[in-house]
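Consortium newsletter contribution from the modelling node. Members have asked for a concrete example of what our holo predictions look like. Here is one, prepared for the magnesium ion complex that several groups have been discussing at recent meetings.
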Amino acid sequence: MKALIFDVDGTLAETEGVHLEAFNAAFAAAGLPWAWSEAEYLRLLTTTGGKERIARHIREAGGDPADFPVAALHRAKTLRYTERIATGGVALRPGVADLLAEARARGLKLAIATTTSPENVEALIRATLGRGMGEVFDAVAAGDMVAAKKPAPDVYRLALRRLDLAAEDCVAFEDSRNGLLAAKAAGLFTVVSPSRFTAHEDFAGADLLVPELGPLAALGLAAAA
Ligand code: XBP
Ligand code: MG
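And here is the predicted structure:
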């Protein structure tokens, strides 16, 4: 094992509640009568990517996404999200900071494979670890950098290319079914730690299913490190 590759939303931190608030704030600021409930958001979450999620909502309401400023709405949402995250209201999930530190101490590389945008990851890492994303992670692969978002393997393949490593040298950490499918399709050993918004999903096919992350020894991965 030479590197650990992490999903962000739901895996590093329980961020989806903040994403939901940010979507609704952006809709209200634009004068749109959309306000997603948590139950509605749980359903929409099966579509990865904020822009794609907004477009799905419009289509389900019988509209055409081309008639709405989806990209501008999403930019407003990202601004709200990074502002909220910067206030420090979201912590890393239990075990995450220790796992990152242990991996570093063992000389493993660290990477990100996320659907969300790098500025959101930067805000989270800055607010929780007090360092820049580029100081903590050797490689960052994000949804808008690739042709197809999770469950497609593209973002994991990009992370592997940026790490210059083969899939068999890396372990992926995910919280969702779409993330699991993406990591497995890229050929990665995949550890799933379900989050508040994904706990109901089907994780068949996961190499390891754990309630939370922690030391490599507790995950049974120390021997490979
Ligand atoms: C998480 C997502 C993201 C966030 C919103 O997926 O689907 O879309 O909800 O992010 P994963 P953006 O954790 O599997 O990567 O609005 O910035 O796209
Ligand atoms: Mg996730």
